[in-house]
Amino acid sequence: MATVCVLKIPTVQLITQRSSERVTSIPVKERVKVSQNWRRGRCRQGTLLKWRRNLMPWMQLEGGCLYLSQAEDIQAYQLCPDGSSLYCRPLAIFSGHEEDVCRFVLASSHVVSGGGDGKIGLHKVNGTFSIKFSAHEQEVNCVDCQGGVIVSGSRDRTAKVWSLSSSQLGQCLHTIQTEDRVWSIAISPLLSSFVTGTACCGHVSPLRIWDLTSGQLMTHLGRDFHRGAGVLDVLYETPSTLLSCGYDTYIRYWDIRTSSQKCVMEWEEPHDSALYCVQSDGNHMLASGSSYYGVVRLWDRRQKGCLHAFSLSSPTSSPVYCLRFSTTHLYAAVASALHVLDFKTP
């Protein structure tokens, strides 16, 4: 049953319009310089935020706002014009979970979150509307939302499909028995299917694609995965191509038009560290977050080896839990801090 939860919003309105993105205002000469900085690994490291206790933060970047989960809350911060700093007072705080937020997405002017309390939260970005509903018997490890549909994955070895329509909100459309803990999930841009990344303890392949309408299994990706080669992050680049990474230390690039049995390309983390997250600029550049020492790696998909590596300063060794790109900056969240790599003014 859906229940109302608390939403704390300061009087300042969230800035989400695309005009706050200053990418289009960067002159061509400056863009070329920034591109060279990315390729050569020239950047200036900075710390945007620090907090006292270790967390597993997640974030999203939308326009001039950076959304960051911290324990039970999701906080929205306005980035400063230079992109290398932010205003410390949050523009909004989205609350309601009784345990830590595991992951969240931004969709249709809403923040959709999954929490350790087994609930899904839905918050209006600019408004007071906010609800939560019981979704799984254990923590909701991952969520995605597109086309009026929410998908969720849980430690309880199920994935579920939910309607976002006001008349069916909180109503489960499909429950899929994955026979394995679900760590990551993503809806195809065509809105016809979704992919789950599981722990690889109860099925041959940790990557499976399901029909969004019927909930039926369509195909699985890859074979000969080692037991425990769980997929911690997965994202679609196009309707037919996607990236995955996880405990087996590989980034994999899949093209389901050519083969579902073998990935098109793969890149191995050179220090045998698990990969918690992967991001793409939609062109040649990839970024990954490793499980030790806050290591962020940049990859050129035209090459096999790592292009550059950056060790983010941290009091203790921490995974990079989440990464986000802009044209000029890379933002990385570790256990006790939010870092930025500035490729515009190194």
UniProtKB/TrEMBL annotation:
The WD repeat ranges on this chain: 133-168
InterPro entries attached to this UniProt entry: SCF_F-box/WD-repeat, WD40/YVTN_repeat-like_dom_sf, WD40_repeat_dom_sf, WD40_rpt
Keywords: WD repeat
Pfam families: WD40 (PF00400)
Origin: domain of life: Eukaryota
Keyword Mitochondrion attached: no
Protein name: F-box and WD repeat domain containing 4
Organism: Monodelphis domestica
The gene coding this protein: FBXW4
